[in-house]
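Service request form, structural biology core

Requester: graduate student, group of Dr. S.
Request type: structure prediction, single chain
Budget code: on file
Notes: please return the result as structure tokens.

Sequence provided:
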Amino acid sequence: QVPLVESGGGLVQAGGSLRLSCAASGRTFSNYAVGWFRQAPGKEREFVAAISRIGSITYYADSVKGRFTISRDHAKNTVYLQMNSLKLEDTAVYYCAARETAAFVSYYTRGVEYDYWGQGTQVTVSS
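Core staff response, request fulfilled:
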């Protein structure tokens, strides 16, 4: 098991910024590829961003490309999602997910590819 804890969500005005954190404990997080997903009310969960095990490769959904940045700090066992220029449609519960992998540069965009999930953090963007 890899306990994942998200934090950093909250209420922000459109155009503002938030930084989400996904902290892992109990395991070497650098052995895991990590992704961020989100789910808005009444909608299916969707992929947001992913980062490879060593952080050299990142990938984004088209809807957030250029506005969001995923990164990781191995020393802190934490993955971040910096969200800038937030829009109303970014309102959702955001989840981080992790998958242990031997591949250094692989990333994953489907929820079924991940083994561990956090509890989610609410992001609300207001007008």
